[in-house]
Write the structure tokens for this entry.
Amino acid sequence: MRTVHVNASTPYDVLIGEGLIDRAGELTAKVVKPCRAVIVADDTVDELYGDRVQISFSYAGFDVSRWTFPAGEASKNLGTLSELLEELAGRRVTRSDLVVALGGGVTGDMAGFAAAVLNRGVRFVQIPTTLLAAVDSSVGGKTAVDLRAGKNLAGAFHQPSLVVTDTDVLRELPAALRSCGAAEAIKCGVLRDPALFDLLEGGDWLGDIDEIVVRCVAYKRDVVARDEFDTGDRAFLNLGHTFGHAIEQLSGLTVSHGEAVAVGMLMAATSAGCPDDTVLRLARCLRANGLPTHCPYGAQALAGAALSDKKRSGDTLTLVLPEAIGRCILRKIPVGALEDWFARALAAQERLAL
Ligand code: GLY
């Protein structure tokens, strides 16, 4: 088992290793005295792992119950959150109790937000079961639900007390979910870690998954330690997201987040004039990981969709631009210039036959 310590306003450990899901209760009991614990999972994950996690927490002395909701991003809304909060309150969950988020990003974000607001803050533990949640959303304390006006618009910063990542669970993921998480891991490689990028490059990295998760979490740990509340450097984690968000929107959400981030990263690189050999290397890496490299939309439509992001404020936006594998910069641009950035990326896409 490997440990990454996150030095946030509430410090905690991220534990990464094989077979941890059956030890989640015992590992949690080292940081949270056994109490009432509610395991929150979607119906798919509950079916796969709910019994094992419940047994593990019961065995460690917790008074455990479970609450499930229908799988999918469509559940991540105020309606489901309200049901969850009523349920937690009805089960008399207090500030000395525990919420256990068992699942991917939807579950972690929503259960974490419920824990943040119930009784003005209940402790919670993250047990990520997707690669994307393991390398990104389970760490750093961002919790939220979607509003009709956009994704993650209602939320809070609330750090977990512990993150327990079982890499055997990640190894069993279906290919599409693995690719989605790989996009976020490749993102960390492009941002800071060329050795991580090397590990991911061939697409055949299941044997190195512990090392990959540790490296991504260590990177996120460093960013969160510098900028927990997202007022500066945490923006680096948005690499590929401005371009990708536009693709996700225009596809009517049929393109997954990971696929959109993959194409978005490539567009960020080409629009910034990143050298062709670096761009082609990134494109090969994305393809080897089952991810797309081609954007089928025009610059005007992309700029319109990117600018519809309700979280954007003011007349400028910040792009994250790769200069090399392992080195990116932040660049503030006027919103009116965004269409030109998309146009440059699309011209490079055609020239390089991406
Ligand atoms: N997933 C981006 C962040 O945690 O800031």
